[in-house]
Specification:
Structural class: alpha+beta
Radius of gyration: 16 Å
Number of helices: 5
Order of helices and strands: EHHHEEHEEEH
Strand order of the largest sheet: 2-3-1-4-5-6
Shape: globular
């Protein structure tokens, strides 16, 4: 992958828990088999073994999210659906580098600690703006855990979830484009 991939996060969470998450300080998680299995399944040039999992160096996750949104080039937004109590975080142009995305994955995995036990959600980084085939990562949320999967292709992700991700990212992309017409 040479082009920047797009990030899509959809997680059911109460506003109170989302605020607690945003106020919390980034923490580097322990390297475990979920991380190493995912890393070993990725194809990249000059690949080195994953020996440490980095986190963001910031005061809080909220600061990280706001900095990404404030960087106009990324085309990022977050929304909260009051009816479904679901948080969406979308970044049209996030990254194409595996080492750069590790802190984001760390943050997204930590988010699971703030979810209800029965909450199910999804975070993916994929080539939305290009051919919509390749997937850099998928994190599935279930039972207060966030698990990285080893899938590589969009076709391996739940079709309904992908349909919604594509629809919301397309809508956001069109809105941004309309601001420059």
């Amino acid at each position: 992958m040479a082009e920047l991939s797009s990030l899509y996060v959809k997680v059911p969470i109460s506003k109170e828990q989302l605020q607690k998450f945003k106020k919390s300080r980034p923490v580097a998680p322990a390297l475990n088999s979920n991380w190493t299995n995912w890393w070993d399944s990725r194809e990249m040039y000059n690949k080195q073994p994953l020996q440490v999992v980095q986190s963001y160096h910031a005061e809080s996750y909220g600061q990280v999210i706001q900095e990404i949104i404030d960087e106009r080039f990324t085309g990022a937004q977050e929304t909260y659906d009051e009816q479904t109590k679901t948080w969406y975080f979308m970044v049209l142009q996030f990254s194409e580098n595996y080492h750069e995305i590790i802190p984001m994955i760390s943050m997204l995995k930590d988010l699971a600690n703030y979810l209800e036990p029965n909450a199910k959600g999804l975070a993916i980084l994929y080539d939305f703006m290009w051919d919509r085939l390749e997937l850099m990562f998928e994190v599935n949320y279930q039972d207060k855990e966030a698990k990285l999967t080893t899938v590589h292709r969009i076709g391996e992700v739940d079709a309904q979830e992908m349909e919604e991700a594509n629809r919301l990212l397309e809508s956001w992309q069109q809105f941004l484009a309309s601001q420059y017409d």
